[in-house]
Amino acid sequence: MLRLIHFDVYCGKIMKKIGLTGNDTCIRCLEKETIKHLMMDCPNTQEIWWTINVNTNEINANLGINLSREKLEIRADLL
């Protein structure tokens, strides 16, 4: 959770920004790879969540994907 809050997850967007790769596309579906894409939007990820019988609405709520950084930091402090 702490790494997510600080955007310290190596997705295509961040790797391109820091010069580790030349593109920011997902190697699985060729869409732009962001942290949200890795956790929720990629069809491959959705299939994995479905396979292990996890409700993606619960993941969104638990990870706070749509929360502001300030609210995420408060949530992390509480944890």
**Structural class estimated from helices and strands:** mainly alpha
Strand % is: under 5%
For the record, give the distance between the C-alpha atoms at the N and C termini, rounded to a whole number. 9 Å
- Total strands: the figure is 0
Give me the Rg, rounded.
14 Å
Annotation field: number of helices: 6
Uncertain residue ranges: none
Nearest-integer average pLDDT? 80
Helix coverage percent: 55-70%
Order of helices and strands: HHHHHH
Q: How can the largest sheet be summarized?
A: none
Could you say which overall geometry the principal axes of the C-alpha atoms support? flat
Total domains: 1
Describe the structure.
The protein is mainly α and 79 residues long. The chain has one domain. It is built from six helices and no strands. The longest helix has 10 residues. The chain is flat. The protein starts with a helix and ends with a helix.
Topology:
Elements: H1 2-5, H2 12-17, H3 35-41, H4 43-51, H5 56-63, H6 69-78
